[in-house]
Specification:
Helix content: under 10%
Distance between the termini: 18 Å
Radius of gyration: 16 Å
Length: 216
């Protein structure tokens, strides 16, 4: 059945979004997926206070429609969206997305020495939207902003929306379920993190079509 996913909060100690109002990128993996280096996601640091005031969703889309399963090798987009639900004026945003194989997912945010990192699921598209970049952090390829991105609709007032869609090709048959992680920060572009809004990272569990018996 096709539907959009309003995602549950990712439990545990997750680093907050790292994006100053005029920054060009994150300080590390803020999504909650584990990098290869020992430590918290390869050096994630905090961006202001974590307030979780931004309603945020992440979903897997096929031809613009949200789907609950993936077909191996299929072409999709991973869509991250948020809305300004505050009284602050926030005309720009930053984000981070990761997609990992569920059977490689690690609990928590630290990869102890000798334990494997999360494994990238599928492949990211080479043609990314303006303001997005493919980066390797702790051995895991993520998609994040390369500079603060203009809001998708609105000028920053309440109701302003922030949407980014990233092309993604699903992994090969037999890979099992995929876990998508997304995190977003809406910013006021005042060269300080004061007044900016962040959310706790969101996750969605996507089974492989025909191999749906993997437990979350």
């Amino acid at each position: 059945m096709k539907k959009s996913f309003i995602l549950s909060l990712l439990a545990g100690g997750i680093c907050y979004v790292v994006l100053s109002s005029n920054a060009s990128g994150y300080g590390g993996n803020a999504t909650g997926s584990r990098g290869a280096s020992t430590g918290a996601n390869g050096g994630c640091s905090c961006h202001g206070a974590q307030n979780n005031l931004l309603p945020v969703t992440v979903e897997l889309d096929s031809a613009g429609v949200a789907v609950s399963r993936y077909t191996p090798g299929g072409a999709y987009t991973i869509k991250l969206s948020g809305v300004n639900n505050t009284t602050s004026t926030l005309p720009k945003f930053g984000f981070q997305l990761s997609a990992v194989l569920a059977n490689s997912r690690q609990a928590g945010t630290t990869t102890p020495a000798g334990q494997p990192a999360s494994v990238l699921a599928g492949t990211w598209g080479s043609s990314l939207p303006a303001g997005a970049a493919n980066v390797a952090i702790g051995g895991l390829n993520l998609i994040r902003q390369s500079s603060a991105i203009n809001a998708t609709t609105g000028t920053g007032a309440a109701g302003t929306t922030y949407v980014i869609s990233i092309p993604w090709t699903a992994p090969a048959a037999g890979s099992g379920a995929v876990v998508l992680y997304g995190v977003l920060a809406a910013v006021n572009a005042n060269s300080s993190d004061v007044g900016d809004q962040t959310n706790i990272a969101k996750t969605v569990f996507i089974p492989e079509l025909g191999n749906e018996n993997t437990c979350n």
